[in-house]
Amino acid sequence: MATAHRSTIEMIDALRTVLAKVERPLTTQELLELASRLNIPASQWREHLTFDPHQFSHRTIYESPYFEINVIGWRSGQFSSVHDHRGTACCVLVLDGVLTNIDYQRDAANELRETSRFDLRPGEMLSRNDWEIHRCGNEQPCGVDLATLHLYSPPLRPLEERQHHGYLIA
């Protein structure tokens, strides 16, 4: 990705234009640099935001052979499954609300153990790469929603290939 032009990106269409010019997958660091340039007003991303009472709701706003960009709406208590990003760099930008991230590692017995837990607020970012195992979601009280923007490069593989099952040890 060319690094000479680092202006702020303030429109979803401008983000699409930038991504359309990139002809290869980006690294996690490059995705973080791109996400740090985003200053998209709520009026832009809210039109893509949806919520489902039973599970988090995502809407893809851009897709190419090198990228997938999703806006995700999370109700209180909704979390992703425990997963990795096998073969994909990921960057999450919190748009509104508080995102809780929980990281895991497999121990010697191949059990999943929680290794860290932290919250991110609007404007803060999280990145994950390849085999890093985590889950994220909305741990806030009932009625407090969460909106996030997820940038993946290249697009995600099917969730069935990335989920981690087994007994979780806190």
Short structural description:
With 170 residues, this protein is an alpha+beta fold. It contains four helices and eight strands; from the N terminus they run αααβββββββαβ. A hairpin with a 5-residue loop joins strand 4 and strand 5.
Structure keywords:
single chain; 170 residues; alpha+beta; Jelly Rolls; 8-stranded mixed beta sheet; 4 helices; globular
Give an overview in words.
- With 170 residues, the protein is an alpha+beta fold.
- It has one domain: Jelly Rolls (Sandwich), CATH 2.60.120.
- The chain has four helices and eight strands.
- It has an eight-stranded mixed beta sheet.
- A hairpin with a 4-residue loop joins strand 1 (57-63) and strand 2.
- The longest helix is centred in the N-terminal third of the chain and has 9 residues, at 12-20.
- It is globular and about 45 Å long.
Query: What is the highest CATH level, the class?
Result: Mainly Beta
Q: Biggest sheet: strands, sense, closure?
A: 8 strands, mixed
Strand order of the largest sheet: 1-2-7-3-6-4-5-8
Distance between the termini: 39 Å
Ranges where pLDDT stays below 50 over 5 or more residues in a row are none
Structural class: alpha+beta
CATH superfamily: Jelly Rolls
Run of helices and strands: HHHEEEEEEEHE
In the CATH hierarchy, the third-tier topology is known as: Jelly Rolls
Number of helices: 4
**What's the overall geometry?**
globular
Q: Any idea what the radius of gyration is?
A: 16 Å
Strand content: 35-45%
- The number of distinct β-strands equals 8
Structurally, the number of domains stands at: 1
Query: How confident is the prediction overall: mean pLDDT?
Result: 89
